[in-house]
Model the fold of this input.
Amino acid sequence: MARTAQAPEAPRASRPLVRDMTGTGSSTVATAPEVLLEARPAVDFVVSLMLDTEPELLPADQDWLAASRASLSDALRRDLTRVIGDGLGSEGIGRAIAPLVVEAPEVRTVADVLALAARLTARDLVRSCCDGEETRAAVDLAIRVLDGEPDQRDAAVAAWPESYRAGIGRLLDDPGRELRALRRILRAWSERFAPIEPRIAAMEQRDVDARRADVDRFPLADLVERITGGVRWSPDPATRRLVLSPSYFARPYNYVFGGRDWHMFAYPLADAALGADADAAPAASLRLFKALGDESRLRILRLLASGDLYLTEIADRMGLSKATISHHLAQLRAAGLVTITQAGTLTYYSLRRDRIADASDELATYLGSSSR
Done:
């Protein structure tokens, strides 16, 4: 999950405005990772279940999402809270299903996710939940408890990041119950997702087909920035595989997953892949003008016009909380006004001056096309 990192004096940094499930390390790499650009409806299925942002969906799908959530029984809602989290800072152990889905290239459909969940063990979830050097000792302790050392239970729970402790405690106390809850909510959500899965898969494939040539055309850093809409990324030395998969339910944000030797961006599906009404206002333009229509966000852009900054620096200069600044930066990144640069544990924000110059041109283009 998103974590704040301590950075050296120059520069100073916070973690990126993405759903980050990775453990990052050094920013240098000996060999460029293999790049896989692929449609994976299984990933969108998991993202749609884990949503903690307001996605940019077509009106019919906004209605579908609201109705699907409302249709869950009280028991299923409890399962959802147990395995995914409460949205208030408590992370459920079931979120570990996402990296497991990504890591297995054969898991492409919702049916594949259910088959994967049916054979999961508690050890699989623990190992997948936080796969980074900083949590290696916590993982090892939890495995010891599952392997028959109950006296290590409290120490194992305490070793995890605070947001995971409740979920890890439940898993260690009753692994079978947690696995059953995960499988129940996945089955229930699959029944609701089934009617839209073919359409989601088709949208994802249109996006991938449109971007295929970019993989060979652009250097890795430029490719990632282009596809994610403003994230500049440097691979860890251990990274051997980079997966880029479009997500309808992530729009306009990026969900980030990672393992020992792989990294994935579930990036926002392009507007052109939606197959929406040609007369509708472009979503990119709506994001742009929404982002510019706020005094605090304009102040952030003014600060970034003087140079690159970290989240803490922006919050200090504006006298606002990091959470508030994070929200504003998310809007600015989604609008393409800000670039996030990730290099190992360091992350900073830069102004995209070319995007600001595009604002008046985009409005003129849209108004001109509507008058023809």
